[in-house]
Design brief:
By secondary structure, this protein is of the alpha/beta class. It has 4 domains: about 1-130, Beta-Lactamase; about 135-205; about 215-375, 2-Layer Sandwich (Heat Shock Protein 90); about 400-530, Response regulator (Rossmann fold), CATH 3.40.50.2300. The chain is about 40% helix and about 25% strand. The chain has 14 helices and 20 strands. The protein has helices at about 20-25, 45-50, 55-60, 75-80, 130-175, 180-205, 220-235, 255-275, 320-325, 340-350, 410-420, 430-440, 460-470, 505-530, and strands spanning about 1-5, 10-15, 15, 30-35, 40-45, 90-95, 100-115, 120-130, 215-220, 240-245, 250-255, 280-285, 305-310, 355-360, 365-375, 400-405, 425-430, 445-450, 475-480, 495-500. The strands form 5 sheets. Strands 1, 4, 5, 6, 7 and 8 form a 6-stranded mixed sheet that branches. Strands 10-12-13-15-14 form a 5-stranded mixed sheet, with helices on one face. A 5-stranded parallel sheet has the order 17-16-18-19-20, with helices on both faces. Strand 2 and strand 3 form a beta hairpin. Helix 8 (about 255-275) runs antiparallel to helix 10. The relative contact order is 0.08.
């Protein structure tokens, strides 16, 4: 307890003069803040002033509530008033820095009394817990996404199996009907609807961080500049889009389609926050490494490209901000929002080893800040080209394909497509049946086409066993899960292909064509080595 003498200049703690205390306080890492009985500042050390982005002199005489966010002012007033009959108390308070950023603190309050015991003020010991709180919130967000993500990924897997057979058989039926038939037109509508449904499962996989990405080196500023013609039509004419870039030649490793999806979602979110028009500003710059970023291969945290999307809209309260990236959370009316847009953004950015943060207040707009790892500068950086999915010409040479799929409809669809293209399709409903076929068949098997998640034995384990019997065989994995969500695949390895469900007949034939070609090359090489 601080005890005051008869005159203010005799203020002391025990026998220690106040001037000596100021020297001690100014050397402390934590903030020390003295307030009078009216809640106004009588002293602030350098630490608390630095936390707030101001100076001790500028704080003198001002009430503590001047530095607090609106919702914590009543808490602080109750804390100060309660010191009259308290020996001390600890509370969490959110202050606002001079630049508008949040400062989360743990405040320990102790009463200041006269020698006679009369209360005259409080001493606040202030610890900055902003980083700790951010880490806790990040961990909580990750846990929520992982829990919901596991559920969503399971739904996507089952749904993608259904879509494979629905779309696949509709495609086969349409091909057998004259182009002028009304039934042909109906089937084509089924195919279009199945493709739309596939986009929904893609969104589910995106926010669980399991969407398949194809990253390429790209100049961040150039990518976003090229996207402006796409973004402008998405927002109304009374919303002005401004691009400001201080990052020249800042290269990132990014999937162009994913980045487009991120910016489109954020632009739509900004548009909805500005129903009467406004200003949308996209700023790009480079920032120094931050503590929460993942370590690079050299053990150091890389610098980042920061993309800030700021709108002049209605803003959000703290409760909304806390849940803004939660899957299925939406502030829109029923039927006007899925709640997947921003959770998709969060998942895609996390999958690209980046971070996203949001700062917002009611009536003051919102700023979404994206951090993506900066690639090392190189004179040989290639110019980014629009993403195109690799497609191989379908081979005219038939092959022998051993297909392992526990879903009857998917298996039958794939068998008919392969047989129709001239391939020999050997089918198995489980791993044991596939091993039996691989062991006893006389003649070559060019390709193993296997589901990944099956009862009894996973696809990668089956592939390893069959390669012991047939080392020349090519492997194609197929699954309703994304490759990144499947332990043991290690992504799209050069020696294997991943076919994501729902796939089309063309997707299947292209993958098998590559597999047959690779299998034949291996067989020729091994034949030469044997001779």
């Amino acid at each position: 307890m601080i005890v005051l003498g008869a005159r203010s200049e005799e203020t002391s703690v025990g026998q220690v003069p106040m001037e000596r205390l100021r020297t001690i306080f100014d050397g402390m890492f934590d903030g020390v803040w003295l307030v009078g009985g009216d809640g106004c500042t009588t002293y602030a050390n350098e630490a608390i002033a630095g936390m707030l982005g101001t100076t001790p002199g500028a704080m003198h005489g001002r009430p503590i509530t001047d530095f607090l966010s609106q919702e914590f002012r009543a808490v602080a007033e109750a804390l100060i008033d309660g010191q009259r009959a308290s020996s001390g108390e600890r509370v969490d308070l959110r202050f606002l820095r001079a630049n508008g950023d949040d400062l989360w603190t743990l405040v320990a309050a102790s009463p200041i009394t006269t020698a006679e015991g009369s209360y005259v003020g409080s001493m606040l010991n202030v610890s900055d817990v902003t980083g700790k709180r951010a880490a806790q919130n990040q961990a909580l967000q990750n846990q929520k996404l992982e829990a919901i993500g596991g559920f969503a990924a399971g739904i996507s897997h089952d749904f993608n199996n259904l879509l494979t057979s629905i779309r696949g058989f509709a495609e086969l039926a349409a091909a057998a009907i004259p182009a002028t038939s009304v039934a042909r037109e109906d089937l084509e509508r089924v195919i279009v609807s199945a493709d739309c449904a596939r986009q929904i499962t893609g969104k589910l996989l995106a926010f669980t961080r399991h969407q398949i990405l194809t990253p390429v080196p790209a100049d961040a500023a150039q990518v976003i500049a090229d996207m402006l013609p796409i973004l402008q039509p998405l927002v109304s004419d009374d919303i002005e889009i401004e691009l400001e870039s201080a990052a020249t030649g800042a290269w990132i490793l990014v999937d162009p389609v994913a980045l487009e999806q991120i910016l489109v979602n954020l632009a739509i979110n900004a548009r909805d926050a500005m129903p009467n028009g406004g200003h949308l500003r996209i700023a790009i710059d480079e920032v120094e490494p931050r503590g929460r970023q993942a370590l690079g291969a050299d053990g150091h945290r890389p610098a980042s490209v920061r993309i800030r999307i700021t709108d002049s809209g209605i803003g959000m309260d703290e409760k909304t901000v806390a849940h803004i990236f939660d899957p299925f959370f939406t502030t829109k009316d029923i039927g006007k929002g899925t709640g997947l847009g921003l959770s998709t953004v969060y998942g895609l950015i996390s999958q690209m080893h980046g971070e996203i943060e949001v700062v917002s207040e009611l009536g003051s707009g919102s700023t979404f800040s994206i951090l993506l790892p900066l690639m090392p500068a190189s004179p040989d950086m290639p110019a980014m080209t629009p993403l195109t999915r690799r497609r191989s010409p379908r081979t005219a040479k038939p092959g022998v394909v051993l297909m392992v799929e526990d879903n009857t409809s998917v298996r039958e669809f794939a068998r008919r497509v392969l047989a129709g293209a001239g391939h020999t399709a050997l089918t198995a409903s489980d791993a044991n049946a596939a091993l039996d076929t691989a062991s006893h068949r006389i003649g070559t098997i060019d390709v193993l086409l296997t589901d990944v998640v099956m009862p009894g034995m996973r696809g990668p384990v089956l592939a390893a066993k069959i390669r012991e019997l047939r080392p020349d065989i090519s492997v194609i994995y197929m699954s309703g899960y994304a490759a990144e969500a499947l332990p043991g695949l290690d992504g799209l390895a050069p020696s294997a292909t991943f076919l994501s469900k729902p796939f089309t007949a063309a997707n299947l034939l292209d993958a098998v064509a590559r597999g047959v070609a690779v299998g034949h090359k291996r067989a020729v090489l091994h034949s030469r080595e044997d001779h």
